[in-house]
Design goal:
The chain has 165 residues and is of the alpha/beta class. The chain has helices spanning 9-13, 29-36, 111-119, 128-133; strands at 3-6, 46-49, 85-88, 123-125, 142-144, 149-152, 155-157.
């Protein structure tokens, strides 16, 4: 999957130009840049406009320069944190120092806009077994380091990583 992040809607719409007949002009904008690199864009792609993304609105973990989101830990019915819980995916990505201070006009950073939009509150567990044991406290989505995926409460991904019919 190919996606681009831009600061504004104006910048995002400038990434692609169109012919008079409405077809994409592959000789202009991002398509031309891809061609210079020896690539071509042959399918749809997402463009996220930082200024328009609904940001995370909760609290942050301490004074960490990474501005990790203070997401509550999952808890089982007895109140304990599930075995094998590692953390929330959105906080497991360390932003490069050059991007730590990238902000939208409203003051929101990359973690609370782009990463939160992509990963939301997805939890990460050590193993599929741990992930399945924790299914009662899953609200959004879960992945395990050995490839398990629960997309949301009540939806499990099974089978192989790629599908061909």
């Amino acid at each position: 999957m190919f996606a681009v992040a831009c600061r504004s809607f104006v910048t995002a719409t400038a990434l692609e130009n169109y012919e008079q007949n409405g077809e994409v002009d592959c000789g202009q904008a991002l398509h031309a840049a891809a061609a210079v690199c020896g690539n071509s864009i042959k399918s749809r792609f997402l463009v996220m406009c930082l200024e328009d993304l609904r940001p995370y609105t909760g609290k942050y973990e301490g004074s960490d320069p990474q501005r990790k989101l203070a997401s509550p830990y999952p808890t089982l019915p007895r109140g304990n944190v599930p075995r094998g819980f590692i953390g929330c995916a959105v906080n497991m990505i360390d932003l490069e120092i050059d991007h730590l201070h990238t902000r939208t006009a409203a003051g929101h950073g990359l973690r609370e806009t782009v990463l939160y939009r992509l990963l939301g509150e997805v939890q990460v567990y050590e193993t599929r077994e741990c992930m399945l044991e924790a299914h009662r406290c899953i609200k959004y989505g879960v992945v395990s380091l050995d490839g398990g995926i629960l997309r949301e409460k009540g939806v499990i991904s099974l089978g192989y990583g790629s599908l061909s019919l």
